[in-house]
Here is the input.
Amino acid sequence: MAIIGAGPGGYVAAIRMAQLGLSVSLVEQSKLGGVCLNWGCIPTKALYSATKTVERAAAGAEMGIKFSSPKIDLPTLAAWKEDVVGRLVDGIGALLDGNKVTVVQARATVASVGTVELSNGDTLEADRIVLATGSSPIEIPGFSFSDPLVWSSDDALAVSEVPKRLVVIGGGVIGLELATIYRRLGSEVMVIEMMPEILPGIDLDRRVIATLKRALKEQGITLQTNTTADALDKDGDTAVVHTSAGPIPVDRVLLAVGRRPNSAGIGLDNVGIEPDRRGFVAVDAKLETTAPGVYAIGDLIPGPMLAHRASADGERLAELFVGEDTPLDYGTIPQAIFTDPEVASVGVSEARAKQNSIDVIVGRFPYAALGKAQGMNETAGFFQVVAEAGSHRIIGAQIIGAEASSLIAEAAVAVQNALTLEAIADSVHAHPSLPEGLKEAAASALGRAIHAINR
Here is the structure.
């Protein structure tokens, strides 16, 4: 097997294939772990956690614990973040070595079916080639990453400075997560989104979005929807973003309008593979492209652009290669958004279910009614479960609040395994704990919540 790309899809595929007795070469032109580990998920969450300390210090006064104003040492913060990343990269290297995966540091190009050419002059012959090259940030007219005033997410995660005025173009996941981090660090942050609502394209119910918008505004983040960014003008140290709503003075611009598959320059034309206009590569039900023996996973193919989805693709493909198949339903893959409060979801929203003519019952439970949330001083948000009215099978869940990214796991197990409301409501949960909120939401849908009025 020759795998091109050692991100969360490629390295997981390599390890699982090796565990199943296949001979694997993994080619990576940069760092093990890919974008997620080095310039995406992990550094973002490390900075999210670090800057959460600033918020907790500010909130301590109302609990009777007072701190002096925190001093942020950017070089130390950046070094700590890099140390977290470095330890994880080293861990992946050890896992690959322990599973006897051959790792090749080079750029790879598909030369023909069964042949991969490397930038070091070598050639790999393989029975199967797996494309796991991931994706890259998108530019828009008038804003180029070559401009020192325009940041990509990579630049923002370097935390080399805290701009006084930061304009984030794009109100999606990446834009809002980085807006949260830089607001905590002290920047004045405005988020511009061209669509009517933030987090466009993500299946969230309106009350979740409304709760998040209210929280972001309370933190001092300005949200401007239905607004396009048209140009960036500079005059010495002064810069202005021209938008459809008027000019906005800035010190830095963070461009976070989405990502594009890395399908160019990897030799697809040599084997007759034609990406679509967005750059995605078509695959069949077994992840094989139109070229026999060439497969693709992760961000390179249509579906949610999530690291854990790519890893799931990688594991599934490895098992397909030895004659096993556990189908993967992309519609039941959970997603977590590291804003403040966190947002997490799995399955379908109430609105989507109704659009699909599914008769549903919905249960909700507020964080404010949880003893653990009160004790944590984290009372914003709620739990929501959506279930089929007849069978009570849980088909979706949304959580907005503290630790939603972890709490969604129980809901994901329920959705992925077609569990019922009763399965959650009748399970004894530890008290006091945050997961009790999901139990109460399920009970609420059944009309028998204990710590909320049933309606």
